[in-house]
Amino acid sequence: MTVAQPIARVLERVAVVRWLDRATGGVFLALGLRLALDRR
């Protein structure tokens, strides 16, 4: 696949993986806080 090759190269970079990990962690943290603070 010609489209997947450039994406795979980008995802091999350590800085990109760290950024994605932080972004994903932030999303999960925000969702957890939202659930914890929900008063239903």
Keywords:
40 residues, mainly alpha, 0% strand
What pattern of helices and strands is seen along the backbone? Answer: HH
- How much of the polypeptide forms β-strand, as a percent range? under 5%
Q: Any idea what the radius of gyration is?
A: 16 Å
Outline type = elongated
Distance between the termini: 47 Å
Major sheet description: none
Uncertain regions spanning at least 5 consecutive residues: none
User: Structural class of the helix and strand makeup?
Assistant: mainly alpha
Mean pLDDT: 91
Number of helices: 2
Query: In total, how many beta strands?
Result: 0
What does this structure look like?
- The chain is an all-alpha fold.
- The protein has helices spanning 4-11, 14-37.
- The longest helix is centred in the middle third of the chain and has 24 residues, at 14-37.
- The model has no long low-confidence stretch (mean pLDDT 91).
